[in-house]
Each structure stands twice: as structure tokens, then as C-alpha cells.
Amino acid sequence: MNVDVVGRIRPARRPEQGHSLLTSAEGKTIYTALGGGASCRFQEVFDQNASTQKVFSRTVEPLLNVFTEGMNACVVVFGETDSGKSYTLIGEKNDRLAIIPLAIDYIFGAPYLQNLQATAMWSLTISMYEIYAEVLKDLLDSSGMDPANLKIACNAQDGTFIKGLNRVAVSSAADATSTFRQGWARRTGASTDFGPAASHATVVTQLDLLVQDGNEMHPTKSSLQIIDLPGAEKLADDKNTSHFQESPLLNKSLHVFAQVVSDLAGTPYPDRVINYSESKLTQLTQEAFGGNCKTRVICCLPPKPETNRLAAVLRTCSTLSQVKNFPVLNDYFVESLVTQYRARILALQHQSFQEMGTKGDGEKVNLLRDQIRRLNNENVQLRDRNERLYTKLGDLQGKMGQMAGSKTDLSSKLVFSEEEKLKISKDLIDLQIQTNKIREQYEAENFELKSKILFLENRIMELELQKDKCTHEYRTAKDCLRVVEKNRKELADEYIVLKTNYMTLSKQHENEVAKNDELSLELLNLANSKKSLTRKQDEYAKSRAIYDEATTELNRVKDLVARLSCQKMKPEEVFVPESDRGTFERNLLGNQDQIKEQIEVMKQNYEKQQNAMEERIVKMGKELQEAKRGIRNTQHKLAEQTVALLGSQSQLKEVETENSQLQLHLKELNEEYRMRLVRYIEDVTDYVDNTVKSGNDNTKPPAADHPYLKRFVDSMLKDIRSAYRSREEQLATAARNYKKRMQNVFKKHEHLLIAYRMQREQILSLGTKDLDPGPSEITFAITDSELLSKQSQELNRLREDKAHLEAKLQDLQEKVRLGRISAPVIFSSLPETDGKDANESWSELRRQLREFTFTTQEDLERERAQLISRVTVAEEQLAELQEYVDKHLGRYKQEITRLRKLVGTEIPRAFSADALHR
Ligand SMILES: Nc1ncnc2c1ncn2[C@@H]1O[C@H](COP(=O)(O)OP(=O)(O)OP(=O)(O)O)[C@@H](O)[C@H]1O
């Protein structure tokens, strides 16, 4: 691979303005004179306006890429004094826009080194030396010793090198730049009789890179040499005469360099033998010119050079562009081979020197001939080997040529690919974010689906429970209906009995009324007879007075007669005989006895009736006593029942307390579950973190592939499932027990209510005012709608209606009772009232009773119809519910199966919907 040579023209100063170098049309060839003279075709020529940055990126940057990848590289700055060499290399006043600072910055940010695996290591050392008048000076020696005492040595391992040269390890671009600037400042700065020392000195800055890839056994070494050559104007001087003017050592490096370059350009083949040993510069840079190195020369040109000098510079540049180098990747095998050859050459050299020292001249010649022969043979063998290597090298060179050709494209492509890479990495990050989002969404959806499934399962369970409850309630309602029907029948029977009683009473009442009429008539007769008797009595009294008057008259007459009988006539004889008198008396007072007899009979009848009444009252009093006793017993029983009811209510409260305790326990369990879950997750995180940490040192495989994590997670899930299953079973058992107890309490409550109702009805049937039957059963009914089913609520509503009806019935019965009581009152008031009015009020009462009977019957019939319609509606609702449950049960089951398939995992049944929601 030829050495690349590029030209850079310094901007013109005032005296130089208006002059320009002669260049070809394409701008790459520079001539000393039109139509003849020296010329050089540069790979690229940077004009006066080109910045150092541009020179760097077009010339040095590709070299730095191969350097960081493991090849030796070299940048040579060549040109006459004041052409801008130092400006190009280090700039002005610590300017960073110069090749060396830019190169250091680039190396530390080089893509290859940046893209190395985290396990790879790389290090960079910097060394600087100056060759001035064939004296080597270590520019990085800060020990205070004489730095210009360095010797060149050679060994198989390192080839030619400077013994004791300082190599400073640098860890950052700033570190490297400051080290370089310190070294640069130590250059020989004195001005000599032959001009400034810098014009005759060569400064070599060498950067050695060592890359140890984690996947490779041996490290890769590569070196970058940046050579600032002495002013090239001396090449224009005559070599044979110049040493009379200057010290011969002063320009030796430059002249030997030009000679070596010329030799190299003349023999482009690999079997050339070049004498590098004439100067220290050529010895130390033999790899850069004709060796294992990729070299680029920047030829700095002033805008107005002297023709001779320009010609010498152009000639040297032209020769340099013909020099062939053989750069290879410094892998372990290449290095080993080179070391082997170096060792062999060194051994031969040693041997020949020894032999030359011991033998005589003739023998020495023979020996030398033999040695030459041997060397020739060896040379042939080496050539064979070399040819093979060269064929390989040719391929490599071809590839390198292609690479060089496509280098610019590659660099632009590299930039483009970098941009693409950035874009792709951005897209990748976006994709990762999107993937994470999708994963989160998936997990959320999965969770939602799981909770939905559990919710549906719970719903099914609830529906099944509701169905059972409905069936149970339907049966209870049927039983209730039966009871209500029975009650209705009983009421109807009672009503019939009442009606018959009423009829009987009406008949009795009519009989009584008839009797009353008769008695009234009789009483009227009696009153009439009494009147007539009174009249008779008055008449009798009058007749008595007449009698008395008559008696007095009679007695007067008798006296008169007696007085007169003295004449022999008795008074009795004067009047009518005694029988006539009896008949007369009988005729006068005969009715009075009859009346007395009748009165006596009536008195006897009254007495009999009074006795019978008294007996009846006594009998009723006894019955009343018995009834009171019975009522007292009933009241006692009622009190017992109330106590039991209160007991059951307190039991209900206890059960409620127990329920709240259970709920509390459930909460505690949930809390414990959450804690355990958190602990598990922490364990998993720790475990994953530890695995990731251990995975970083490449000793363990990644955690995702490790079966232990899966086992760990599986066991964890198994634990959670089993714990939850057992807890759910416990809770289900507790809930079942609670439900049973609730049902028992409800049953007891219902029994108590029924017993209470029967007792109350018994008391009510007695119809006594003294005994309080207590409040309606609805007062003791459970009103909490949460605890009641629909049927129970309906039952309670019916109970309320019944209580209302009972109250109404009681009012009416009261009215009837009042009506019954008012009858004797009316009867007793009959003598004072008119007979016609009494009849009217009775007919009014009868009408009211009839109306009440009809309305009660109608109410009862309506109630019955309502009850039947309600039961029918309840049956229809139950049937609908049954149908709905049957229909949706199948659908829910199908849905669950589908969701299970979709989720792909078995949903732990142990998780309650509540826990999942939480
Ligand atoms: N491309 C450039 N742009 C601006 N100024 C430049 C450029 N090249 C060189 N110069 C200027 O030219 C002068 C000489 O440059 P420089 O010292 O680098 O030359 P030189 O070849 O290194 O000389 P010497 O061999 O004596 O060191 C400096 O003042 C420098 O600033």
C-alpha cells in the first residue's frame, strides 16, 4: 500500500500576496514551472482557505480509525521551514484545532474503542523524542537527568527502540494533550549559528495503544507516530558541499531519510534490503517507511516558495508517494512471526560478527561466502514464505485498497450509519417503551379479564344462591299463601259463623221485638185495666162513701128504727134481708178480688223472671271468672313469648357482632396476604437483582434462562394459592355457619311471630276489654331490608295490611257492640218514644249491618284476589328469574372458558373478587 501524500498550502502573507503555486486543472498536481521542472501529484491539495479541521478529518481521521482497530499508523508533516508544519500539528497558542490535539480527542472518543464490550480493556501511552544532530532527547523526561543520552537498541520482541524512553500512560484526552504540550515545550529551542534548532530537529510523538478484548487471549498492540520532520529546504542544497557550511550531523537525518525513501520507491518489492541504519531517524521510523504501517504525509507548502526548494520538496513527495508499505493488523500471530524473523536476523548478525572476529582474511572470505550462500538459501526459503505471505498481503492490500477507495464513502456512510444507528436506537427505545406499554396494557387487561372472570364467577354463584333463595322464598311464599288461604277460609268460616250468629241474633231480636210488642200490648192492657181498676176503685171509694153514707143513714135509720122500735120493730126488719145485702155487696165489690188475683199472678211471674235473670247473671259471672283466668294464663304465655322474642333479638345482635368480627378477621387476613405478597415480590426483586449482578461478571448465565427463578416463582404462587384456598374454605365455612344460624334465627323469629299471632287472636276472640291483646305482630317483624328477602318483605307488607284490616274490623265490631247495647236502651226508651221511631232506628241499624257485611265480604274478596294476583306475579317473576339464570349461566360458563383460553393460565380460584379489586 503506497504512502499517501497530501499537500497543504499556507495562507499568503503580505509580501507573498498575489503569488500562487502552479497547479493542474484538477488541482492535485503542483509544478515548479509550466511545461517542465519538478512536479508532484498529491492525493489531495488543501488550499489556503482549508482549515486544519478539514485537513484532519480528510487525512488523519481514517488513519486513526485503523490505528484504534490495531494497525500501525503514521502521520508525517513535511515541508520547508516556515511552511506551516508546526501550525498544522499543534496550532498556535494552545489551539485545540490542530492535528495532535484533535487526534488525541478523536482517539479517546473513537467509535471502535467506544463500541468495545464492557469487559474489554484498553490503555494508551504517550512517548516523545527529538532527534537533533543525531542526538536523541526524551521530551517526556522530567527527572532532571540529561535527557539527551538515549541509545537505540534492538530485540526480537520490540524491534528497534529507544532504550529508557519514558512512556506516560494517559487516561483522558486532557491528560494526553497536557503531556504532549509539556513534551513539546521541552524541544531544543536555542537558535544556533545555522538558524533556529527547530528547523533541523525532528520531533516524534508516539502513541501506543494496547487493547485487551475479553474474547481474545492476547492483546492487540498498535502505534501511531506523528513525525514533524526538519525543514525540507536543505534537500535543495548540495549534499557534498553543505557539510562544509553546517555540521554534517545537523542535516544527516534528512538526507538519509531522502535516500531511504528513494531506495524504497526504487524497489517496491518485499524482498528489498534497505539500509535504515545510517541515521537515527530512519532507524526509528523504518516501520513507517516501507514497513508494517499505514503512513500519510502532509506536505506543507508556502504560497511563494523558492523554485529549487519547491522542486526538492516536490521530488521527495513524489518519491514518498511511490513507497510501498505493508500494513497488517497486529494480531498475535503476525507479531509472533515478525518476532521470529527478528530473532533469526539478530542471531545471524551475532554469529557473523563472532565468526568475523576469530578467522583470518582468506578464511573470513570463505566463511563469508558460505554465509552468503547460506543466507541466500535461507533467503530463497524466506522468499518462498514471503511470497506466500505477500499473496496474502496482496489480498489484504486489495481489500485495503478497496477500503481506501471506499474510505471516504465509508466515512460519510459511517456518519450516515451513525445517524441511522442513532435513529434506530431511538426507534428501538421507542419500541421498547411501546413494548413496555403494551406489556403493561396486556398485564392490566389480563388482570382486568381475570377480575372480570372472577366477578362473573361470583355473579354466577350469587345468581345460583339467589336462585336457591328464590326457590326457598317461593316455597315459603307458597306456604304463606297456603296459611293465608287457610286464614282466609277461617275468616270466611268465622264470617259465616258471625253471619249465622247475626241472623240468629236478628231472629232473636225480632222475637224479642215481637215479645216486646206483646208485652207492650199486655202492658197497655194492664195499664188500661189499671186505669179501669183505678176508676173502679174510685167508684168503689165513691160507693164506699155512699155505703158509709148509707150505713150511716142505715145506722141513723136503725137508730131511728130502734128508737122507733120501741114500738116493736127491729131495724133489720126495716131494711132488705142479709142475702140481698151479700148479693148487693158481691155485685158492688166482686171485680176487686179478680184484679188482686191477677196482680198476684203477675207478681209471681215477675219474681220468676227476676230469679231466672239472677241465675243467669251468676252463671255469666262464673264464665267471666273462668275467661279471666284463661286470659291471665294467655298473658303469662305471651310474656314468655315476648321474652323469647327479645332473646332471639339479642341473639340476632350477637350474630351481627360475630359477623362484624368475621369481617374484621377477613380484613386482617387480607392485610396479611398483602404483606406476604409484598415480601414475595421483594424476595423476587432481590433474587433478580442478585442474579443480574452476578450475571455482569460473566460467571453465571442470565437470570431469565435460569430454571431456579421459575421454580421459585412457581413455588411462591403455589404457596399463595394454597394459603388462599384454605383461607377461602375457612371463610366459606364461617359464612355457611353464619347463614345457617341466621336461617335458624329467622325460623325461630317466624315461629315466635306465628305463636304470638295465635295468642293474640285467641285474646281478641274473647272480646273482653279488660285484657290487652298487645300490639300487632308487624311491630315485631324484622324491618331491615338488607336481611329480608323479597318474599319476606311482601309478607311483612301483608302483615301490615292485615293489622290495618284488624283495626278496621275491631272498630266495626265495636260499632256492632255499641249497636247491641243501644237496642235495650232503645227498648227501655220505648214507652217515652214513639213506636214508629224505634222501628225506623232498628231498620237503620239493620241496613248498616248489612252494608258492613257486604263491604267486609267485598274487602275480603278483593284482598284474596290481590293475594292471588301477587302470588301469580311472584311465580311469574320466579319463572323468569329461573329462565334468566339458566340462560346466563350457560353463557357465563362459555365466557369463562373463552377467557381462560385467552389468558392462557389457570386463574387461581382462591383469589376472591374483593381481594383482586383491592
Ligand atoms: N494554515 C495557516 N493559516 C494561518 N497561518 C499559518 C498557516 N500555516 C502557517 N501559518 C503561519 O506561518 C508561520 C510559520 O508557520 P510554522 O511556524 O508552523 O512553520 P514551520 O514550518 O513549523 O516552521 P519551523 O520549521 O521553523 O517550525 C506561523 O506564524 C504560522 O502562524
Automatic annotation (TrEMBL):
Belongs to the TRAFAC class myosin-kinesin ATPase superfamily. Kinesin family. GO terms for cellular component: cytoplasm. GO terms for molecular function: ATP binding; microtubule binding; microtubule motor activity. Pfam families: DUF4472, Kinesin. One of its GO terms (biological process) is microtubule-based movement. This is Kinesin motor domain-containing protein. Residues 365-392, 439-473, 516-567, 592-623, 788-815, 857-884 form a coiled coil.
